[in-house]
Design a protein that fits this description.
3 helices, 7-stranded antiparallel β-sheet, single chain, 151 residues
Amino acid sequence: MATGEPATLAGALTETGHLLEARVYYADTDLSGSVYHARYLEFLERGRIEYLRLVGGHRANLTDRKQGDEVVWIIRRLEIEYRQPARLDDTLTIETKTADISGARVFVVQRITRSGKILVNAQIECALVDQYGRPQRFPKEWKRLFRPQNM
């Protein structure tokens, strides 16, 4: 991790967002030895989950809301660009950054790199919904958590 912070299972917060390292295992690959395209979605999901965990927006904090009904994160939109393949035993870095926040949505940009080379770029629109699927506003105290220092 480039931040000088000790590495943990949850990765590390940075000035601009979050970094997480992951290794490519045999189960992540297809017959060609490259990472199967859908597995990149799982790597990106891990990055977002650990980012949420470290900033305080993890599922446990949503289901135990003191201010009202249970809410959950959903992915409203996802755009992904595959640039280069990852291969068995590669060490990947999953970078997650908040691009923008509206009343009920967080726009996240992510990329997966290997030794500084960009393999995947992704743009994700996340939202909070209640148990009936209705959009919910972000608690005011959360907005500052999702704003990196340089945003």
